[in-house]
Amino acid sequence: MIGVLRIIVRNPMSLLGLILVGLVVLSALLAPWLAPYPDHNGAVVDFLNNNRAPSWNNLMGTDLVGRDILSRILYGYQISLVLGVIVLAIATPIGTVFGLIAGYRGGWIEVVLMRIVDIFLSIPPLVLAIAMMGVLEPTLTNAMLAVTLMWWPWYARLVYSIARGEREEGYVVAAEVIGASTWHIIFREILPNCLPAIVTKMTLDMGFVIIIASSLSFLGLGVQPPTPDLGSMVAEGARYLPDSWWLTVFPGLSILVAVFGFNLLGDGLREALEVKS
Amino acid sequence: MTLLALKNVTKTFRVNQREVQAVRNVSFDVREGECLAIVGESGSGKTTLANMILGLLGATTGEIHFRDAPLPARRPPELRRQIQFVQQNPLSALNAKRTVGSSVRLGLDTYRIGERAARKAAVEAALEAVGLEPELARRPPGALSGGQRQRVGIARALAVEPSLVVLDEPTSALDVLVQARVLRLLNELRAAKKLTYVFITHDLAVVRNIADRCVVLKEGQIVEMGETAALFDDPQHNYTRNLIRAVPVVDQTEVELRNKLGKFND
Amino acid sequence: MSLLSIHDLSLSFRGVHGTTEVLHGISLDIAPGEKVALVGESGSGKSVTARIVLGLLQELPSARIQGEVRFEGQDMSGLSRKQLAANRGTEISMIFQDPTSSLNPTFIIERQFAEVIRRRNPSATREDCIRIAAQALADTAIPDVERVLASYPFQLSGGMNQRVMIAMALVNKPKLLIADEPGTALDVTVQAQTLQLMRQLTDDHQAAVFFISHNLGVVREFADRVYVIYRGRIVEDGPTEAIFADPRHAYTRALMNAVPRITGTGLPDIPERSDSFEAPQISHGSAS
Q: Which band of pLDDT confidence, cut at 50, 70 and 90, is reported for residue B254?
């Protein structure tokens, strides 16, 4: 772990990623204390102060009902990260188990499982999410469900390709000859060899999940007002460009910073883990 | 006593709509306590034969018997335990993501050998028995040299107390000095633990010094079989002669032996 | 004059965890047309020596090289990258351990040959290349030259690919052929034939061979002179006959004794490591 960290810190790009991600995570965790106007994440209006350009009172300006944009961005990070973590926490294990079983057992099990994966992969992700949200109520939970459904097959495919390669390796044959159970071989022998790739993908995915969730909210299909969501903030403000530019630019930039940070970190992680092995 | 018996074993593979016979009508016995070498070049079928003995593949026709009872590919755990494996490539034979000790321990846990609390000590004893320091149990395979990893592979195979060990080119990937030590170790262990070896190799010089009897395979068939010393002194089949003749030798006495066999011919 | 002259060559690598010294001042000479073997185990530094001669290692930023390497009298450290590259495939060529993986799997043999031939003769036409390649392959006793030229490496056997590689390495008539563990990946009967072939062809072309190996038996049959390398130092050198008849350094003796004999002399008890291996170099001088 320390070795990996050291490699990441040495590379300027991945160090930048680590810093950005650190900032995002800290902002999300400490939002209630960092936000200048902590109650602005809820149902608060202040029409006297609405649509104000950035000033010393509101570093990123205020939105159309007078809420402080900076505060809402910090809380928005909370929502994004929670969404990302929960989606990945569910999608990754499901996809991984699918991929491990299909990759190791082979035969008709492999065919059936991977065709199911193919079906999910053949639907454009955003279309699937929109279709689902069209059917269900637009809430954060349902948004998470939709995104999870489109996410797990990618893990299945990743783990499947690794497991297929590993199943021919000497240590797997050795375990089979010793008489270890299939359960042991899949989870205690092969899975540890898939973890670097999985962890790297999860880090990169955080950025992508944030974008997908923001896209859903942008379309009005995700989180509903007054909950602050970076995507909806961008959507609301888009109409008022270029005059009230701060309504869109700051939320947009905050998405960019988060995604960029996770991408850089994920790249650095991948390189670091490759170097180690 | 015959430990392992192969009778008319054939293995056919389907490759690209063609049928390939990797092993053709092979029959031989392995006596308890001996070291039987299976000698062959690439394409001889030696690896396929090993895989069938180990239960990784099933024979297409023919029978394999272990202690006079049938030995199928899918076999019950107690039978599986009796026949173990040492591989050629020490690097890939150990899981890079697990410690050396946990790899050796796998067999102990699978068959519940000894009390759980005592298994850590059993692993350390197993490592010592192959000439390794017990502290290595905590290291990952990447921290060990090729020779050390191969010894770990041997320790792992022996930990479950098998009767028969199949060794597939166990020293081919090792340096000269390391190979010499590992071969000695294998010899010592066979005597000490009353093991039987099926030793697969293409290296005739190794065979001459470690095997009691040899089976020479060519393209899936046995061309010659017999006591090692007799086979080398007076090989009957042309292929055997060619194999011996082709060994790059170091000593003058070896050169004389080779010259006695006549010229190399196809 | 020496064709290749290495004098006091040292090599170290700067890595994440510090500097690793690989070669500690080795010296060796190869005369034109001579077959010289460098024998050692893994980690001895034999393979990196070959790559330094080819000028390949110099491009690595983490490599620190000291000492002199002279080819045909010219100091290689004075050569630019372009000049070093120009030598490869023309004056100095190399063959590798595993023939099938050393050939490009996506091109047929004819195409790969053409690439090599054009290193020496950039304006060679396709007909020229085919003619030259066919002759080169025929010299290696390959019966069906046309079929081989039209094949991909994976369609040919290991032994066949080894012959192709030797033919390609010699087609530009290099002065020096570096052979890194050739035949190790081949069956023993094929290896024997290949080595015979290599000996004959290099004699015909009057090419010197720098032969790197861990296999003493192969070295005995192939080389005129032998250098034994242990952990980055040459420990013994001399004419092949002298070394094999009378190995003097403790490491050389250990290597000799460790090789199993087809006469069945048993498995001797030899240490993997010993302080006596670090003893200074013993030279046997030239053959009488």
A: confident
In whole angstroms, how far apart are CA A82 and each of A75, A257, C179?
Answer: 11, 17, 59
Residue segments in chain A with a per-residue pLDDT below the cut of 70: 1, 275-277
Residue of chain B whose Cα is closest to the Cα of C265: B209
Q: Taking a contact as any Cβ pair under 8 Å apart, which residues of chain C between 147 and 186 contact chain B?
A: 158
Convert the pLDDT of each residue in A142-164 to its tens digit. Answer: 778 888 888 899 999 999 999 99
B205 → closest Cβ in C189, C221, C262 = C262
* Residues contacting residue B187 through CB under 8 Å, at least 6 positions apart: B210, C267
Q: Residue B103 carries which side chain, given as an amino acid letter?
A: S
* C269 close to B (CB below 8 A): yes
DSSP single-letter state for residue B163: S
Give the helix/strand (H/E) hosting C119.
Answer: helix C109-120
**Which chain A positions have a beta carbon within 8 Å of B112's beta carbon?**
none
C-alpha–C-alpha distance, residues C197 and C211, integer Å: 14
Q: How far is B15 from chain A (nearest CA, A)?
A: 17
Q: How far apart are CA C71 and CA A96, in angstroms?
A: 56
pLDDT tens digit string along C47-103?
Answer: 899 888 888 888 788 888 999 999 988 888 778 888 888 888 788 999 988 888 889
Query: pLDDT for B185-244, tens place per residue?
Result: 999 999 999 999 999 998 899 999 999 999 999 999 999 999 999 999 999 999 999 899
Edge-first strand listing for the sheet containing C92-95: C92-95, C176-180, C208-213, C35-39, C225-230, C233-239, C282-283
Nearest alpha-carbon partner for A233 in A31, A61, A63: A63
Taking phi first (over 0 means left), then psi (-120 to 50 degrees means alpha), and beta for anything else, what does residue B21 get? beta
Q: Which chains touch A (3 or more CB pairs under 8 A)?
A: B
